[in-house]
Design a protein that fits this description.
Pfam families: FtsX, MacB_PCD. It is found in: Cell membrane. This protein is an alpha+beta fold. The chain has 14 helices and 10 strands. The protein starts with a helix and ends with a helix.
């Protein structure tokens, strides 16, 4: 029997029981759809995170207090106090860090702000005027604080757009005074609305880092130091200069005992990319379990089909169909079922991913990009066909081995 005729025969067999065929491929459809959905949203999330990280600039270096976090157990490192003013002063000396263009200390925490009867929980960032340029923070109203305000420990604050709306509504916020940690802070600037970003500045208050240390957070150390190298070519050189300076400041001779960590934007982007990729693959693997369940369902249905079509098999064998012809027909039926299920799953997964991506962008102001994972689509088709072959082989062999005489006598 030529392959063309085998395909026609297999298609006719599936068309005879359309409802059963559709129910049979449901597991494959759900499995492939889930994989496409997870992979697509995972790529979208990865693009969003990397774009936001790169938005800080490719020459940016982050110096953190404590050991470099390697897992959830190291989350407490954020409270380490190893970065002090003495370290900042040493790093600011050009002879120590000639490859660095500028260095900005950063402290952060949480607090509540109150104005009249309104209260709002916000994130506190203590920084220098450099923050406006580092994080690309356009001012909608007012202005940013100055270096003189840093030295004077001025109680000035630049607030995010949502903070302004929650505390002052539609009124002009610049010049207003609200309480935070029992101190009065005067609003000198309001940030333009940014939407959800790597940091949610819409719900933040930015104040001079000296003010944050003394009046809000009650600390004498820095959580982070943000450094910009003179050029992209000098990033690694600048990072090494920072490490050597801090080791000398902390009397550290063994790099394995560093009580700080240095990460470049390239390193950070690579690590975040690896993390999101691993999570996406893990979720896709979990979703792929339904493909195995669907394959078992196809095998069961094919076994039922073989039993129901025993006389048909006997008649075809009596008319000259060989073992190979029967085996090919039933294998083709299984592969056509799973292939169809895979195709439907890919289309549904892509459509749902597109809908979700557009909904996120529309309703949350997050610049989420729809991404169609071509590799996942090809994998879905390939795995679907493989499942058809694997789980369809046993029913096909059972059908092909039937004796034509016994099959014709079957009631």
């Amino acid at each position: 029997m030529i392959i063309k005729h085998s395909i026609k025969t297999a298609f006719r067999g599936l068309e005879t029981n359309r409802a059963r065929s559709l129910l049979t491929v449901l597991g494959i459809v759900i499995g492939v759809m889930s994989i496409i959905l997870v992979m697509s949203l995972g790529q979208g999330a990865q693009s969003l995170i990397l774009d936001q990280v790169k938005g800080m600039g490719t020459r940016t270096i982050i110096v953190g207090a404590g050991r470099e976090p390697t897992g959830p157990s190291d989350a407490a490192q954020i409270f380490n106090d190893s970065l002090k003013k003495r370290d900042l002063d040493l790093l600011l000396r050009k002879e120590n860090t000639p490859s660095s263009k500028y260095i900005m200390p950063l402290v952060f925490g949480a607090s509540s702000a109150s104005y009249q009867s309104d209260t709002f929980n916000l994130t506190i960032f203590g920084a220098s005027p450099l923050m406006e340029n580092i994080f690309d923070m356009p001012i909608k109203d007012g202005s940013f604080f100055t270096d003189e305000d840093i030295r004077a420990r001025a109680k000035y604050v630049v607030i995010g757009n949502k903070v302004k709306k929650e505390l002052f509504g539609s009124d002009d916020a610049v010049g207003r005074v609200f309480k935070m940690k029992g101190h009065n802070f005067r609003v000198i600037g309001v940030l333009a609305e940014r939407g959800q970003d790597f940091f949610n500045f819409d719900e933040a208050a930015i104040i001079p880092y000296t003010t944050a240390q003394d009046y809000v957070l009650g600390i004498k150390h820095f959580n982070r130091l943000i450094v910009e190298a003179e050029s992209e070519a000098l990033i690694n050189t600048a990072a090494e200069e920072i490490k050597l300076t801090l080791r000398e400041s902390h009397d550290i001779t063994d790099p394995d005992k560093d009580d700080f960590f240095v990460i470049t934007q390239v390193d950070l982007a690579g690590r975040l990319s690896s993390i999101t990729s691993v999570l996406t693959i893990f979720l896709a693997a979990v979703a792929a379990i339904s493909l195995v369940v669907g394959g078992i369902g196809i095998m069961n249905i094919m076994l039922v089909s073989v039993t129901e079509r025993t006389k048909e098999i006997g008649l075809r064998k009596a008319l000259g169909a060989t073992y190979k012809d029967i085996l090919t027909q039933f294998l083709l039926e299984a592969v056509m079922l799973t292939g169809l299920g895979g195709l439907i799953g890919i289309l549904l997964g892509a459509f749902l991913s597109w809908v979700i991506s557009n909904s996120i962008t529309q309703f949350t102001a997050i610049a989420w990009t729809f991404s169609f994972p071509i590799s996942a689509a090809l994998l879905g088709i390939g795995v679907s066909g493989a499942i058809g072959l694997i789980f369809g082989l046993y029913p096909a062999r059972k059908a092909a081995r039937k004796s034509p005489i016994e099959a014709l006598r079957y009631e």
